[in-house]
Amino acid sequence: MASSISETTIRGMDPINFIKGYNKLNHLEDQAAPSTHTHKKPLITIAISFILLFTLIIGAVVGALVHHSYTQSPESPSLSSSYADSIKTICNVTQYPVSCFSTLSTLYTLNASPKFDPELIFMASLKISFTHLSNLSSFPKTLILRAKDPRSKAALRDCDSLLEDASAQVNNTMSAMEVGPGEKMMTESKIEDMRTWLSSAITDQETCLDGLEEMNSSVVEEVKNAMQPSKEFTSNSLAILANIKVLLQNFNLTMH
To answer: What sequence ranges are listed for the domain Pectinesterase inhibitor (predicted)?
Structure first.
């Protein structure tokens, strides 16, 4: 009987002890083994760091490529400086190099020709001179309406015809530069003709001012200031033409 009770008691306690033991074992295992969540945190941090580093490297490479592409483009500062130096070389032969450079460097289209061409620079200078003379053509007429002195009016009428002639002389020079296929923009005979025309254009403008000064006209300074740009560019054009052969040689070119 006692034996039966003891056995029953043991049998009854075994499941409880077993559960307690199992729970204790699970608790020990939880302490011994690091959790899955704890492992994930370092892995995520490493992955993010790797992605950021990779992004920075790619950004640096792309930035370097863009910079290289920009510096090698036709609009790069080094190429522009090369053309600027070439224009300065041409303008240095003129009497007014500052106005020559400031205007021609803006007007001359760098992409107009694959190679720098002094003849095209000369043509650009002629166009500037002609534009200034054309804008000046109506100026004497305006002053005539304001003038009260008959002698000043007479001098201004002379200026009117003289400026028209100057404009026509520059236009003749430009027309000589316009050629068809196979024709040369410049030849020895053309250069002589163009020098004559440009010299006449300069003389016309100077004669206008001389006439106003002789008449003691009150508008002398006004006309002189208005005429200064056209005088400078007609003079610059003549100087470039007079040195065109040397300039072409400096750029390893010949008349064409």
So the answer is: 82-240
